[in-house]
Amino acid sequence: MIFKRNDKFALLMSLLFGICSLLSIDASAEKLVQDNLQNHEDLWDRIRNGFALALPPDSKAIRKIESPYTQKPESFNRIVAKSERYLFYIVEEIERRRMPMEIALIPVIESSYDPLIKSNNSSAGLWQFIPETARILGLEQNVWHDDRRDVIASTEAALDYLQYLYKRFGDWKLAIAAYNIGEGTVGKVLSKSKHKGRSSSFHDISLPIEAKHYVYKILAVKDIVANSRKYGLQLRPVPNRPYFDTVEIHEPIDIPLVTRLANISATEFTALNPAYNRYVIKIHKTPRTLVLPMNKKEAFLRNLETYQDPRVSWQIYHVKKGENINEIAKRYDTNVKQLQTINGISRNKNLTLGQKILVPYAVMENIAESKAAERLKNSYASVHVVKKGDTLYDLAKRYGTTVNKIKRWNNSDENLSIGQKLLVSRS
C-alpha cells in the first residue's frame, strides 16, 4: 500500500515523468525482451532469470514468512492462477525498464493479483494505490472508471514510481520499502543514520518493522519461486506469451455489447477491464483503452465495424426539480434498483436538480418519438436522426435555429450519438 506524499513529491514526480516521456526504449532492452520471449516456454523461468535481490544474511524472518505458502501450496497456486492474465505484460514492462524481476511479485503481496480486491484503507487495484497517491501519479478516478484498477495504467504508474524511488535512494530494497511505508519515512531514517555516521544499507538502518517485513515478504515469495523444488512446491505453469491485446475506443459503448461482439463472458471482460464502474464505457476528451484476449481482438474489430445499431442503450438524463428516482424509473420502464446500480446511487440518497443520471436509451428514444410526433402534429416541428459527423453547430445552421434551442428542446447538452433522434425545429 502507498501512503500520502508531500507537495515536493508531486513536483519531483512531475519533473521525472516529463523526463521519462522523452526517453525511447533502449535497443538493448528490447533485444533482451525478445531473447527472453524466445528462450523460455514457462514464464516462471523467465522471471527466475531476472531475479536480482539477495536474501538477508539472517534468513529466519524469510523462513517464517514462507511457511504458510509452502505448507499450503494450493493457496499459492490460486494466486498464480489469478496472475495469469496480467503476469506476462508486467514481466515485459519490468524487463524493458531493466528493473529487478522481484517487482513482479509485489502484487502477490499487495492484492494476491486480484485487481478487484477491496481494502480497508481505500487502496485499489493490483498495486493497491490510495486515492491521493493515484491522483499524483495521474490515475483518473470518477464515476465511470477508476484507473487504479486499470491493469495497464496502474502498472505503468507503479513502475514509474518505483523507478523514481530507486533514483532517490539508490537501493531497490529501500525503494520497495518506501513504496510500502512512504518515501518521507525512509528519507528521515536514512538522514538520521547518515548523521550518526552509520551504514545506510537496507539491512542496517532502523526502518519500521512494517516496512522491513514487507520487503521480506517479497523476498520470501522470490525464494519460493526460485527454489520451488526444494520446498516440494509444484508451481502452476504460466505460458510465456501475451494473454491480452488492446483496442482504443473513441465512442461510448455498452459493456454488454463489447462482450457480445468479442464473444467473451462478462467475467472475462471484468477481469481484463476492472477499471470500469458502469455498464457503459464513457468517452470524455481522450479515447479509452479496451483490453481483450489476444485471440478475440480481430473478431471484435470486424464485428464492431459491421455493427449498425446504436452502441449505447443508456443515455444521460437531467433530473428536474422535485423529481425522485421512483418517478424516473417508472417513466423509463425500468426499476429503481437498476437505476441505482448503474448510476452508483445509494439507496437512501435523494436526486438533486440538474443531476445527470443514466436512463434506458430505447425508452428515451420512444419518448422522443412520441413527443416529436405530437409536436409535428401541433406545431410543424422537424425531427433529425443523427448521422456520423453531425454536430449541433451544423444542425443549427442547416435548420435555421441555434445550438441552445436544440439543447433546450431535447433536454440535453451531451455529445450526439449516431441514431439519436433530435427535435431540430418548431414553429
Oligomeric state, counting identical vs distinct chains: single chain
Overall pLDDT level:
84
Strands in their spatial order, largest beta sheet: 1-4
In this structure, how is the largest beta sheet organized? 2 strands, antiparallel
Number of strands: 8
State the separation between the terminal residues, measured CA to CA: 62 Å
What features would you describe in this structure?
It is a single chain. The protein has 427 residues and is mainly alpha-helical. The protein folds into four domains: 7-226, Lysozyme, CATH 1.10.530; 244-306, no CATH class; 313-362, Membrane-bound Lytic Murein Transglycosylase D, Chain A (Roll), CATH 3.10.350.10; 380-427, LysM domain (Membrane-bound Lytic Murein Transglycosylase D, Chain A, Roll), CATH 3.10.350.10. The chain is 50% helix and 8% strand. It contains 20 helices and eight strands. The strands form four sheets. It has a two-stranded antiparallel ribbon. It has a two-stranded antiparallel sheet with strand order 2-3. The longest helix has 19 residues, at 151-169. The protein is elongated. The protein starts with 6 loop residues before the first helix and ends with a strand. Residues 21-25 have low confidence and may be disordered.
What is the strand and helix layout of this fold?
Elements: H1 7-20, H2 27-39, H3 43-49, H4 60-71, H5 73-83, H6 87-96, H7 106-111, H8 131-136, H9 151-169, H10 172-181, H11 183-195, H12 209-226, E1 244-249, E2 253-254, H13 255-262, H14 266-272, E3 280-281, E4 288-293, H15 297-306, E5 314-318, H16 325-331, H17 336-343, E6 356-360, H18 361-379, E7 382-385, H19 392-398, H20 403-409, E8 421-425
Antiparallel strand pairs: 1-4, 2-3, 5-6, 7-8
Helix pairs in contact: 4-5, 4-12, 6-9, 9-10, 10-11, 10-12
